[in-house]
Design goal:
The complex is a heterodimer of chains A (116) and B (110). Chain A has 116 residues and is mainly beta. Chain A has no helices and 11 strands. In chain A, the strands form 2 sheets. In chain A, strands 2, 4, 5, 6, 9, 10 and 11 form a 7-stranded mixed beta sheet that branches. Chain A has a 4-stranded antiparallel beta sheet with strand order 1-3-8-7, with no helix packed on it. In chain A, strand 4 and strand 5 form a beta hairpin. Chain A is globular and about 40 Å long. Chain A starts with a strand and ends with a strand. The relative contact order of chain A is 0.32. Helices cover 0% and strands 44% of the residues of chain B. The chains are: A mainly beta (116), B mainly beta (110). The interface between A and B is medium-sized, with 20 and 25 residues.
């Protein structure tokens, strides 16, 4: 069965960077893109961007342009999302998910807390 | 792009039907048949309930159905059950390789 297993909870100071990993199994990793979505405490879902696992093409949300980088390692079926220059309003649960315009499976989420 | 518009909350009694609306624009919901609906229980990851407007993934109850008219998509849940109580989010392709989510709707089963 499809599984997306994400790295653990992170606590960062403002201005720092965080890199979240997402290891996929149970399907052909290069057959589907990976989408990243985040959810601030008590808030809704926010699309962060998407990466093609076939050729590495990326599309990021405009508000995160310049601070976010999504990458993949096809040899280990793992996707990564790095967010730089962290601010307090980046505190959220970060999800990786399988698919591009239709997301059909989600990771368990990674809580990233930004606090001084 | 702006978030899709959903009612903040809806409620219904067990056995009843409810409908959650998701209003976008001619640049997203109105232009593409790529609306998805997700169910999210507290502390859990979202779960896909409807994709491409009206298709149900394997394993999702046929009590869940989706539709679209112009710039508004809708999710209908019939025969409400206690376990349906959750947050529901719509999501649409918005062109230029982007997705947009709705603000979410809290469903309360009375």
């Amino acid at each position: 069965q499809v599984q997306l297993v994400q790295s653990g909870t992170e606590v960062k100071k403002p201005g720092a960077s965080v890199k979240v990993s997402c290891k996929a199994s149970g399907y052909s990793f290069t057959g589907y893109g990976v989408t990243w979505v985040r959810q601030a405490p008590g808030q809704g879902l926010e699309w962060m961007g998407w990466i093609s696992t076939l050729n590495g093409d990326t599309h990021y949300a405009q508000k995160l342009q310049g601070r976010v980088t999504m990458t993949t390692d096809t040899s280990t079926s793992t996707a990564y999302m790095e967010l730089r220059s962290l601010r307090s309003d980046d505190t959220a649960v970060y999800y990786c998910s399988k698919g591009d315009w239709t997301i059909d499976s989600w990771g368990q989420g990674t809580l990233v807390t930004v606090s001084s | 792009q702006s978030a899709l518009t959903q009612p903040a909350s809806v409620s219904g009694s067990p056995g009843q039907s409810i409908t959650i609306s998701c209003t976008g624009t001619s640049s997203d919901v109105g232009s593409y048949n790529l609306v998805s609906w997700f169910q999210q229980h507290p502390g859990k990851a979202p779960k896909l309930m409807i994709y491409e407007g009206s298709k149900r993934p394997s394993g999702v109850s046929n009590r869940f159905s989706g539709s679209k008219s112009a710039n508004t998509a809708s999710l209908t849940i019939s025969g409400l059950q206690a376990e349906d109580e959750a947050d529901y989010y719509c999501c649409s392709y918005a062109g230029s390789s982007t997705l947009v989510f709705g603000g979410g709707t809290k469903l309360t089963v009375l």
